[in-house]
Write a structure and sequence with these properties.
There is one protein chain. The protein has 243 residues and is α/β, with parallel strands linked by helices. The chain has a single domain (6-240), classed as NAD(P)-binding Rossmann-like Domain (Rossmann fold, 3-Layer(aba) Sandwich), CATH 3.40.50. The protein has 8 helices and 8 strands, in the order βαβαβαβααβααβαββ. The protein has helices at 15-26, 38-49, 65-78, 94-97, 106-131, 149-152, 165-185, 213-225; strands at 6-9, 30-35, 55-59, 84-87, 138-142, 191-195, 234-236, 239-240. The protein has an 8-stranded mixed sheet with strand order 3-2-1-4-5-6-7-8, sandwiched between helices. α1 (15-26) links the parallel β1 and β2 (30-35). The longest helix is centred in the middle third of the chain and has 26 residues, at 106-131. The structure holds NADP nicotinamide-adenine-dinucleotide phosphate (NAP). NADP nicotinamide-adenine-dinucleotide phosphate (NAP) is lined by residues 10-11, 13-17, 35-37, 40, 61-63, 88-91, 115, 119, 142, 144, 196-197, 199-200, 202-205, 209.
C-alpha cells in the first residue's frame, strides 16, 4: 500500500499548477502532474524529479473524458487512493483579445466552459471513488476573483472593468459547482473549496502581473496541507472572497 499522501493537479505542466506540484511534493506528497500533452507532461515531471521531488506525470485532457477515465484507472492501480485534487487547468482567450461580450462567439464561449467548468465536473466525477478512499480528502477548484458577482458588480473594485464574459462567468459557474459538491460531500468528509491565486505572472496572467507563481500557489497548497480545512469557501491569501 502507498503510504504517502497523493495529490493530482490538472493543467500542471506550466504556470501555477506546475508550482503547486513542486510545493506539494516538498510537503511530502506523491505529486501527480497532469497535463493534456504527453511530451509537455513528461518534460515538466522530469524537471521536478531532477530537483529530487516525488513527481509522476499523467496525460489528462480535462475536455476528453476518455483520458480522465484512463488517468483514474492508472491512479487506482498505482495508489488506490487520492488525497488531494487540484482542478487548476483553465483557459481564457479573451485576456489576449479583449473581446467584448457582444463580439464573443458561441464557439469561444463553449470552448471556455468546456475546460473551466465541464472539465472540472468531469474530473471530479471520475476521481470521486478514489477521493472517497482518503481519510481527509480535499478538492480545490482554481477559480478567480473575476468569478465573483459581488466584486464584478461593484464599481469601486479594480476588477469592475475586466468585462470578459466567457472567462468570468465560467468561474462563477465553477463557484456554484464548488458549493454544490461541498454540501453533498460533507458526508464523505471531503472538503471542497474555490480559490483565487491572485494576479500571477504566467502565460495567462502575463508579465504585467504583480505576483509570482510561488505566491499564486500558496492558497491551494495551504488548503491541501492544513489540518481540518474549511469547506464550501471561496478563498485567497487574504481570506474569504464574496461570492
Ligand atoms: N494567472 C493568473 O493571474 C490567474 C488569476 C486567477 C485565476 N487563475 C487560474 O489559475 C489557473 C492556472 O492559470 P495559469 O495562470 O497558471 O495559466 P497558464 O500558465 O496558462 O496554464 C494553464 C494550464 O492549464 C492547462 N490546460 C489548458 N487546457 C487544458 C485541458 N483541456 N486539459 C488539461 N490542461 C489544460 C495548460 O496546458 P497547456 O500547456 O497544454 O496549454 C496549462 O498547463 C487557471 O484555472 C486560471 O484561470 C490564474
Amino acid at each position: 500500500m502507498h503510504t504517502k499522501k497523493v495529490a493530482l493537479v490538472t493543467g500542471a505542466n506550466k504556470g501555477i499548477g506546475f508550482e503547486i506540484v513542486r510545493q506539494l511534493a516538498k510537503h511530502n506528497f506523491t505529486a501527480v502532474l497532469a497535463g493534456r500533452d504527453a511530451k509537455r507532461v513528461d518534460e515538466a515531471a522530469k524537471r521536478l524529479r531532477a530537483e529530487g521531488l516525488d513527481v509522476v506525470g499523467v496525460t489528462l485532457d480535462v475536455t476528453d473524458v476518455a483520458t480522465i477515465v484512463a488517468a483514474a484507472g492508472w491512479l487506482t492501480k498505482q495508489f488506490g487512493r487520492l488525497d488531494v485534487l487540484v482542478n487548476n487547468a483553465g483557459i481564457s482567450s479573451e485576456f489576449a483579445t479583449g473581446t467584448k461580450p457582444s463580439d464573443l462567439t458561441m464557439d469561444a464561449l463553449r470552448t471556455t466552459y468546456d475546460t473551466n467548468f465541464f472539465g472540472v465536473f468531469a474530473v471530479i466525477q471520475q476521481m470521486l471513488p478514489l477521493l472517497r478512499k482518503s481519510a481527509s480528502a480535499r478538492i480545490i477548484n482554481q477559480s478567480s476573483t473575476l468569478g465573483s458577482l459581488g466584486v464584478l458588480s461593484d464599481p469601486a473594485t479594480p476588477y469592475y472593468g475586466t468585462n470578459v464574459l466567457a472567462y468570468n462567468s465560467s468561474k462563477t459557474a465553477l463557484n456554484a459547482l464548488t458549493l454544490a459538491f461541498s454540501k453533498e460531500l460533507a458526508a464523505d468528509h471531503i472538503a471542497v473549496n474555490s480559490t483565487c491565486p491572485g494576479w500571477v505572472k504566467t502565460d495567462m496572467g502575463s508579465d504585467a502581473a504583480p505576483r509570482n507563481v510561488e505566491q499564486g500557489a500558496a492558497i491551494a497548497v495551504k488548503l491541501a496541507t492544513m489540518d481540518n480545512p474549511p469547506s464550501g469557501k471561496y478563498l485567497d491569501d487574504a481570506g474569504e472572497i464574496q461570492w
